[in-house]
Amino acid sequence: MAQRDVPSRGSQKQNTFFGGAAILAVGILVVKLIGMFYKIPLTNIIGEQGNADFNNAYYIYSVLLTISTAGLPVAVSKLVSEANALGRHNQVRRTFRLSLLLFLGLGAVSFLVMYFKADALAGLMNDDKAAAGIRALAPAVVCVGCLAALRGYSQGHNDMAPTSISQIIEALCKLVVGLALAYWLMKAGQSADTAAAGAITGVTVGTMVALVYMVLNYVFRQAHEHHGAQDMADDSGSILRELLRIAIPITLSSSMVGIVTVIDSSLVQGQIQKTLLENPDSWTLYANFVDFAPLEKALAAWRETLPAGEAVTMAALSAQVEKTAPPQAALALKEAVQAVSRTLYGNYSGALNIYNLPTSLMAAVTAAVIPAVSGALARRDRRGASRVAGSAMRISALAAFPMGVGLFVLGTPIIRLLFTKLNAELAGPLLSTLGLATVFVCMMLVCNSILQAHGFVSLPVLVMIFGGTVKIFTNYNLVGRAEVGIYGAPTGNILCFGLCLGLDLLIIARVIPRRPRYLDIFLKPFIASALMGGAAWAVYGLTARLLMKLGRLCVVDETTAQVLGLSRAGNALTTLLAIGVAAVVYGTLVVALRAISRDDLALMPKGDKIAKLLRL
Q1: Domain for residue 200, yes or no?
Q2: How far is 48 from 421, CA to CA, in rounded Å?
Q3: What's the pLDDT score for residue 25?
Q4: How far apart are CA 422 and CA 225, in angstroms?
Q5: Are 37 and 175 within 8 A, CB to CB?
Q6: What is the pLDDT of residue 572?
Q7: Other Cβ atoms within 10 Å of 483 Cβ, number
Q8: Which of 183, 178, 182, 184 lies closest to 201 in space, CA to CA?
Q9: DSSP state for residue 70 in the 8-state scheme
Q10: Would you say residue 240 lies in a domain?
């Protein structure tokens, strides 16, 4: 009996993070990497304002997409899997057909809302220019609904490969078609918001091509399935009730992040615009990044239309714009204010694109931890479940801490390296602040997976609602302050996810037996990352000074040399050198401090060989 608590090497291999959920985890990782190669060049093509338009449209799409498809694929795969296990093939077919009809219905409603209410949705985001992108995304909701049904059906047959392949096809089409359209439109002299809509069209095309693949896969499977089943399928009403019973809680929990993001983005942009209009003193905060001449001219023209003594407020401007025949001066002022807001928020969105990369790379771990822990609990191996949970948190901390510290230390150089169209002096500090939140959000995702694997499905949702409320409240108040402005937006992320992580850790300590030792998990990665960050900061600073001195020696005019500063090529060299040194320092410290154990490596592919190499 004692041996049940200590899995053999063979069972360890089967229960690795890359075991039961290997195909889906690798598929997710590949899709996220493709997304990285999509977002970075896209921002350089469409610029600051186009980046804001793209993200505002995508946020709306994400919420409606989550509502339409988040919970139902899980419900479909569960019911199909159960019916298959009992040999009820007619039940499988009826479940799939009903789910497909349900997806089509939800997709059609979402399509109608996005296409015919695009202007209203763009207004909700305080970005009228996002309307074209929202319309371009509308057909994708219907396609993704059908995709979700087919993916759930495939997963219910324990076949994960079609889901991963279709996701990769979708991402590749988005990359190729979206970037090509955006580039062509910008070269043709179209506006940034039009180019953003072209980039978003790539998403729609990707879903269509992926849907074709999944339909062909379904037809092929049907041709090889047994069609002589004699079982009596349940009536449609009971199947629909069961689908909704499973899907609704999952949909609610999955929708929270998207809903919070939409509310937060809308409020941040609304507060920026309100402050810009009502308090011109706030302009000094962005004087080095924005040309305020068009806004100043539009504001002066609108003031002349106001009755004597009436204050300049966003409420007064909105009231005029909403009239049946709004004054031209009011429309011009609204567009000018939104133009500045789009520039500022576009830089923030660029920083968010980099900030989201570490959380995307964590997707493989979070996708695999649930089946690994659940499998151990199903065998009543609590020690094994605790070992997997502890190793998952430790591996996540070893990845999250250096990424967060790296973004904090090298925020501005990284923006300057990756984004030619963003203002590094504005987006860089925003990314540095967001770097602190990276550690919290990565660890929170893993903690949520551990809680869900132990059956506590609703607790992470409640925690996220609480954290999201704090984020919205914080950002609303900070961004509205003239001396803080857009720089207050990342603070909400730190408070939100820091609070969520703290509550998750507290819950794990209270409700999960044999909880991991937090000091062992966090202390060594923190020490190694702090020293790594110091090394990266020193290497970048010293190398940058050296290159600038060399640059001045090559320029006769001292004034010209000072203006030149560190060139783009010089920044790329110093940034990559700093990152390389940081990686070496961090890897050395991890081994020297014994921050990772043989048990942790056993949960990874080729872990035994890596452990022998590191002499663990």
Answers
A1: yes
A2: 7
A3: 60
A4: 54
A5: yes
A6: 85
A7: 12
A8: 178
A9: S
A10: yes
Instruction: Report how far apart, in Å, the C-alpha atoms of 304 and of each of 10, 313, 329, 339, 340 are.
Output: 80, 14, 9, 21, 22
Calculate the CA 452 to chain-centre distance: 20
Report pLDDT for 594. 80
39 is in which domain, residue-wise? 14-225+234-274+337-516
- Sign for the pseudo-dihedral over CA of 281, 428, 397, 452: positive
- 315 inside domain: no
pTM of structure: 0.83
User: Number of folded domains in the chain?
Assistant: 2
Q: What is the DSSP string of 98-161?
A: HHHHHHHHHHHHHHHHHHHTHHHHHHHTT-GGGHHHHHHHHHHHHHHHHHHHHHHHHHHTT--H
| Residue where a domain terminates, one of 501, 516, 531 | 516
State the residue for tokens 């819950």. Answer: 507
pLDDT of residue 495: 93
Does one domain contain both 83 and 194?
A: yes
In one-letter notation, the amino acid at residue 223 is A
Q: How many CB atoms lie within 10 A of CB 122?
A: 23
570/482 same-domain check: no
Instruction: Identify the segments of the chain with pLDDT beneath 50.
Output: 1-21, 555-564
Q: What amino acid is encoded at 555 in this protein?
A: V
Q: What dihedral do alpha carbons 583, 421, 182, 122 form, nearest 10°?
A: 100
In angstroms, rounded to a whole number, what is the distance separating the alpha carbons of residues 253 and 243? 16
Angle value at C-alpha 126, between 138 and 429, nearest 5 degrees = 105
| Calpha distance 332→303 (Å, rounded) | 12
- The count of residues in the chain is 616
Q: What is the mean pLDDT of the chain?
A: 81
DSSP state of 605: T
pLDDT of residue 135: 93
Sign of CA dihedral 571, 573, 576, 581: negative
Dihedral angle at the C-alpha atoms of 143, 265, 498, 442, nearest 10 degrees? 30
Contact by Cβ (8 Å): 152, 250:
no
Q: Do residue 151 and residue 216 come from a single domain?
A: yes
Contact of 369 with 446, CB cutoff 8 Å: yes
Contact 528, 590 (CB under 8 A): yes
Sign of the C-alpha dihedral, residues 282, 287, 290, 293?
A: positive
Quick one: how far is CA 590 from the chain centroid? 28
